[in-house]
Design brief:
Radius of gyration: 20 Å
Number of helices: 14
Distance between the termini: 43 Å
């Protein structure tokens, strides 16, 4: 139960990070996506640092959860991040939640409960995969991330829906990269029983740092490329999916088969459909209007020759 509680807290910390970092980046030039200039601009904004601290807190809570629970259990719980993000964003961006958003949040929660109950993920036998499996898995993971980023980069942000597709693609890529980061984190934390020196001696710890930096860069690009709810569903759903695959590949974690797969798939489908409904929420228009209003000076400001307030 402790790993469940810590995973929920990690999801809430990640939700706060997403909203704060989206607020910090929403009025930056669109061409800054996937460029180092984006990070340089964000470093000048205190609200971004608050979001970054939430990211660090989320990582610490996630590591603690993985130290006591399996990868296939902890990561799916992180989909709670999406409804938590929606609730927090409605407060920060002064938008109102309607029946559509509430039903989607309930659908995601119910789908998650069904997925975990019927699959009943269980830890493996304690044996970790060899370097061959790690090499192939990392190669496939990174290849998919690169392909997704390239597809998103080719979406013209000036065309209708282009910015949302771009943000969604970068969000999926970031989620896949965070899934890989979680696999490295689990590999390092699995040596905790041998002492902290064993954790710091594990190669996965340093691979986790490198993977996490890339994941953070992709996350900032996703949050900057389009609306928050365009980036968040792909980010939230791809992370646990990739982590479950890594749990089976690298740590021999197993789930129940047979007829249990049918309701588990139904639960996963309910999560995906609910996320897609959230992605089409009218709140997207509300945030876009708010962003445009922040960019356009008022009539009084125009007469006074003053720039708009950021």
């Amino acid at each position: 139960m402790l790993s469940y509680f810590l995973a929920v807290l990690a999801a809430c910390a990640n939700a706060a990070a997403s909203v704060l970092q989206r607020r910090a980046s929403r009025d930056l030039p669109g061409e800054d996506s996937l460029r180092p200039q984006l990070i340089l601009h964000l470093l000048r904004r205190p609200v971004w640092f608050a979001g970054f601290l939430c990211v660090i807190l989320g990582f610490v809570l996630q590591a603690a959860a993985l130290a006591t629970g399996s990868l296939s259990v902890v990561q799916p719980i992180l989909v709670v991040e999406l409804p938590a993000t929606l609730l927090l964003a409605s407060w920060v961006f002064h938008t109102r939640l309607h029946r559509r958003e509430w039903l989607s949040a309930v659908g995601m929660t119910g789908g998650l409960a069904a997925l975990l109950y019927f699959l009943s993920p269980a830890p493996g036998n304690g044996e970790e995969a060899g370097w061959e499996a790690w090499t192939v898995g990392v190669g496939v993971n990174l290849s998919f991330v690169v392909a997704t980023v390239e597809w998103g980069r080719r979406q013209p942000p000036a065309l209708p829906g282009g910015a949302s597709r771009r943000a969604a693609a970068f969000g999926v890529a970031a989620g896949c990269q965070f899934g890989l980061t979680a696999a490295f984190m689990k590999g390092a934390m699995s040596r905790e029983e041998e002492g902290f020196s064993a954790v710091f001696a594990a190669w996965q710890l340093y691979a986790m740092v490198a993977a996490g930096i890339l994941a953070m860069f992709l996350l900032q690009s996703a949050l900057h490329a389009g609306n928050l709810l365009a980036a968040q569903p792909g980010l939230t759903l791809s992370d646990p999916l990739v982590a479950i695959l890594w749990g089976s590949l690298a740590f021999a974690e197993h789930v129940r088969g047979g007829w249990y797969v049918v309701p588990a798939v139904a639960g996963g489908a309910l999560i995906a459909v609910s996320a897609l409904v959230l992605a089409r929420s009218p709140l997207l228009k509300g945030e876009a209007a708010l962003r445009d209003a922040a960019r356009v000076p008022s009539a009084e400001q125009q007469r006074a020759g003053r720039p708009p307030v950021r």
